[in-house]
Each structure stands twice: as structure tokens, then as C-alpha cells.
Write the C-alpha cells for this entry.
Amino acid sequence: MRDYARRWTGMTRPNLPEAKEFARRIRAHALRMVHAANASHIGGCLSMADILAVLYARILRVDPADPQAASRDRFVLSKGHAAAIMYATLAECGFFSPAELDTYCRDGSIFTGHISHAVPGIEVSTGSLGHGLPIAIGMALAARMEGAGSRVFCLLSDGECDEGSNWEGILFAPHHKLGNLCVIVDFNKIQSFGSVAEVLNLDPFAEKWKAFGWQVEEIDGHDLIALERALSGVPAASGWPTVVIAHTVKGKGVSFMENNLEWHYRSPSDELLAQALTEIGA
């Protein structure tokens, strides 16, 4: 475990400059993993890197030495296709060696292309969109009923908000006053076959969540200070669930990937990988 990761389970947390370095490291891991495996979804990995960095550096109560601790916070990555950046995050936290990332998407590896709960630190396997939030809601309800004090965080993609199962969950959570639940939407505005506005327009997005009874925060999803401020407010004082709509850039940090639909599926060549790593400072 790296020095700054070792402190995460104690009273002292990494400061935001360290979280920025952590975000850079997981971006580099994800780029190398996707390149080596000739895999996809790097654009959506890069858009959520800063969110994961703040969550794991500053917010989540988790212990790499005891991944199943009963009192832990739960994190559910509903956009399970962004597996590479999630595995990279857990490796940097010390849940397993970063060397294991080299097996990503290889035959027989537990590091599959959509996240698997066989990996230490992963709560649930996801990838079929619209499943993560209902599971996270069940976790939040169980934690409240048991008096566990655990918080549940769930990261959705924006395109995933096309799914009706999410809106059933969005109606359910305020009814049960699940203040220990926080949803984060990686709102990079590009989904698999086009822009969100073209495929199925979500606007007025924030107003819909408010109408369903959620506490709503809209922020720059690459602003580490804004992310920490929004995410540290869970549980909400009012007892209502929180949604953080994080406006992000698909492919963030790599000029030729930013806001470019093709990087939902494309894998970088040797030359493009080198350029990407240079641009993020790796």
C-alpha cells in the first residue's frame, strides 16, 4: 500500500493535492490496462477519475485490510463497464497489488471487463445498466434498519438514467427517507451511440430529482474541492437522499479523447497511448 493510501482508514486523510496525484495515477493505470487488453470504455473511465479519487481519499470509510468490515461504507459502481478505473482505484488503495492489474481482461482473470465482486473491495458485480442503484437502495435500507451507521454511495452514468428501473428507485428512496444514500451521476453527456441530448434528453435533469424528493447538488465533477464539499454532507441532515450531478468531460485529461464519442469503444494504439500518458503527466 502506498504511504498516502495507508492513512485512509485512520483519522488523517490525504489532502486534496494528494488526491489530485491519486487521480493522475489511476488515469495512467486505466490507459495502460485498456491499451494492453485492446478493450474499451476508456472515455467513461477518465471522466470519473476525479470522483473516485475524492471518494476514496476523503470520504469513504473502508479498510483494505478488512474489505468486509460490517461498519464499512458501501460503494456501488452502477456503470460497471468502467471497470478499469475502478480496479486501478482499489489497487492504489491497497486492496491488492497494482501488478495484478496486468491481468485485466485476460482469460481466467478475476479482473473482468465489467466489474466483478470476485475482486477485493467490489461490493457487487454490475454492467447491465439500471441495476446498481436498486441494489444500493437495498443496502441503504438494510443499514438503516440494522442501525449500522454505514453510508451507501452509488455512481451512475448519465446514459444509464434512460433506464426505468432507476426511476423506480429514485421514487422509492425518498419515500423511505434514506439519508444515508448518495447517488453521483457522471454527467459527461455522451453515451454509447451519441450525445445524451440526442439519444434521450434528460433535461430538466436536476428538477426531476428535486421533484422526486432528493437533495440535489450540481457541481463541476473535476473540481476536487467541490466534490469533497458535496460528498461530505452524507447523511443529509434532513434525512433525505442526496444526488450529486457531477458535470464531467468524457476522456478528461487527454486532448484527443475529450468529448469524443469514439473513445467509448476505441482502444489507443502504442503511439496514442504514449501521447495520452504524456498529456496526463504519467
